[in-house]
Amino acid sequence: MVVGDFALELDTVVIGAGPGGYVAAIRASQMGQKVAIIEREYIGGVCLNVGCIPSKALISAGHKYQEALDSEIFGVTTEGVKLDFAKTQEWKNNGVVSKLTGGVKGLLKKNKVEVIEGEAFFVDEHTLRVINGEHAQTYSFNNAIVATGSRPIEIKGFKFGGRVIDSTGGLNLTEVPKKLVIVGGGVIGSELGGAYANLGADVTILEGSPQILPTFEKDMVKLVEKDFDKKGIKIVTKAMAKEAVDNGDSVTVTYEVDGKSETIDADYVMVTVGRRPNTDELGLEVAGVEMTERGLVKVDNQGRTNVKSIFAIGDITPGAALAHKASYEAKIAAEAIAGKPVAIDYIGMPAVAFTDPELATVGYTEKEAKEAGLDVKAIKFPLAGNGRALSLNQTEGFVRLVTTKEDNVLVGAQVAGVSASDIIAELGLAIEAGMNAEDIALTIHSHPSLSEAAMDAAEIALGLPIHA
């Protein structure tokens, strides 16, 4: 490529190659656009490299380790079980992450998307400049999709470095810490806390809210709290983290509960209190793009900003910071650019916590539905009544359906238990398609399967339960 001040022309340019960006680029190319994607760090973004995927790999490794230690109920006796964490990390990085990121690179090439390395800065609403070291190149575009993601929030008194780490540092430790303190008991903190406890760490979670996982309903969270208690994880709620002092070979964390100061020593403290949008060094304001005080980009129901030629998706827009949200918005934005009559609709979008047990929710909760003016009922089917859950020896949890009283239309669902992340997909589809409980109940589910719990829950909603 010629490097210089002559602008190279593109139909659509995508900034950021995470689960929002690479999907947007591929879909735009499928729509007949000449597309380039700009990435300053790594293809696949946070999710594939230092987020969703590697965290699930560590969670899986922790499960395998615990299964090896405790399989006597199945008649399996094991001796001398050891954890080689270096091998665990090697598998996570090379057996999982590298394969997926390599796959994304192949998909971009297959779809004729040009990959540009460097940092992008807007010059105006149709021009941007990409800088890579000492080299720079200007590009003109008809449309841009900004998908630059987010980064961990650093809080006062907890400057990242040494033994004060963010979630990325937590995923890349070279050894399992004997003691780990986690500041923030949301999804990331709870997932990694559970993973490291399964791998042998003594974990303490400090959460400012009255409960961990505050975005999930209390009866769901209680199941995770029960598991944490079994694992020996200490949960301190209504705790305000004040300071971390790196002692070289340890770290001392100070926090307050009810005005009383407490300290705890650990090998590491991991801060997982939220994420900040990566919008501060793009020159969006130069292009005239409007943002909120938090740096989130304001968009319409197609992902378009107030500047007609610039779209924004994923963590830099209002709403939950979820990879699947970014990918969904990516397709909408790319198709909107192509003139398709599309619009964003989040009603069928799930949220999941990969804890033990897994938690998943989609659509309305019962409380949310009633607040929205809907006349609904909520019913539960316990996994203890599901044959597959029994055969897996994982019976904690339930499937809950929220349906309208008049015609049993499904408006929400929550699943707590093994494979909740998979079960929720069927219920999301049902909500998206406007199905009622009878549609789910009359769908023949394979036996024995965890998915039968959705069918059994639907039969309860109809007043015709077989297994309850």
Automatic annotation (TrEMBL):
Disulfide bonds listed in the record: 47-52
Alphabetized UniProt keyword annotations: Cytoplasm, Disulfide bond, FAD, Flavoprotein, NAD, Nucleotide-binding, Oxidoreductase, Redox-active center
Domain of life: Bacteria
One biological process term in Gene Ontology: 2-oxoglutarate metabolic process
Cofactor requirement: FAD
Documented EC number(s): 1.8.1.4
Keyword Transcription found: no
Binding positions for FAD per the UniProt entry: 56, 148-150, 315
Record Pfam families: Pyr_redox_2, Pyr_redox_dim
Main location per the UniProt record: cytoplasm
Catalytic-site annotation from UniProt: 447
UniProt cross-references to PROSITE patterns, sorted A to Z: PYRIDINE_REDOX_1 (PS00076)
A GO-annotated cellular component: cytoplasm
Gene3D superfamilies tied to this protein: 3.30.390.30, FAD/NAD(P)-binding domain (3.50.50.60)
Subcellular location per the Swiss-Prot or TrEMBL entry: Cytoplasm
Catalytic activity: N(6)-[(R)-dihydrolipoyl]-L-lysyl-[protein] + NAD(+) = N(6)-[(R)-lipoyl]-L-lysyl-[protein] + NADH + H(+)
UniProt xrefs under InterPro entries: Class-I_Pyr_Nuc-Dis_Oxidored (IPR050151), FAD/NAD-bd_sf (IPR036188), FAD/NAD-binding_dom (IPR023753), FAD/NAD-linked_Rdtase_dimer_sf (IPR016156), Lipoamide_DH (IPR006258), Pyr_nuc-diS_OxRdtase (IPR001100), Pyr_nucl-diS_OxRdtase_dimer (IPR004099), Pyr_OxRdtase_I_AS (IPR012999)
Gene Ontology molecular functions: dihydrolipoyl dehydrogenase (NADH) activity; flavin adenine dinucleotide binding
Stretches assigned to the FAD/NAD(P)-binding domain: 11-330
Residues where NAD(+) binds: 184-191, 207, 274
Cofactor comment text: Binds 1 FAD per subunit.
Boundaries of every Pyridine nucleotide-disulphide oxidoreductase dimerisation domain copy: 349-457
Comment field (misc): The active site is a redox-active disulfide bond.
Entry similarity comment: Belongs to the class-I pyridine nucleotide-disulfide oxidoreductase family.
Name of this chain's protein: Dihydrolipoyl dehydrogenase
The species this protein was found in: Vagococcus xieshaowenii
